[in-house]
Amino acid sequence: LSIEKYAVTSARHAEFGGENRDQRSFAFWCTQWMSRATRLVRPGGYVMIFSDWRQLPVMTDVLQAGGVLWRGIVVWDKAAAARAPHTGYFRHQAEYVVWGSNGVLEKVPGGPFPGVITERVKPAEKLHMTGKPVRVMEELARPLADNAHVLDPFMGSGTTALPVLARGGKFTGIELTNEYFDIACQRIEQAQTSGDGNLYDK
């Protein structure tokens, strides 16, 4: 299966590399970075990975091959705002968050937290081809401690950082594409300066 969904140049979004691997090399590459990232997760900490339907089986394997205890899948329902299907097809209106923990899960008060998050995609607010709404990231941050230190090794436009900082946590992000790195830094600086981590793509 060729992964070429994002290997295009857009007038709105900068191209980023690495998305044209076949299934086997994609799984191998993901296992490499997952294994390294898991070493940085404290015992009991959460690990979450976004995936579309095509890569869902691979990502459940990658999570476990990287040493993470797989615990479930959260569904992000994009509702009718998702890309329209071809005639006769089901609508591809969901992405999936494969999640687990580094050993015994450290639970926080509250919950159970929703296993399905419904939030429409607003293309005009996206700063990255695969950008996520801030509310989706807010929901995923709910099980975390307020002082959690979150690592996003594929930071993109920095959306993950916003709810983490708003809760008083710490954030470390990694991004190879210069344009997206600059956007993320601007958003994070704005959130820290204003004290408002609930900033949408602006």
Automatic annotation (TrEMBL):
Its EC number is 2.1.1.-. Pfam families: N6_N4_Mtase. The keyword Metal-binding does not apply. GO terms for biological process: methylation. Transmembrane segments: none annotated. The keyword Methyltransferase applies. GO terms for molecular function: DNA binding; N-methyltransferase activity. Keywords: Methyltransferase, Transferase. Residues 121-184 form the DNA methylase N-4/N-6 domain. Belongs to the N(4)/N(6)-methyltransferase family. This is Methyltransferase.
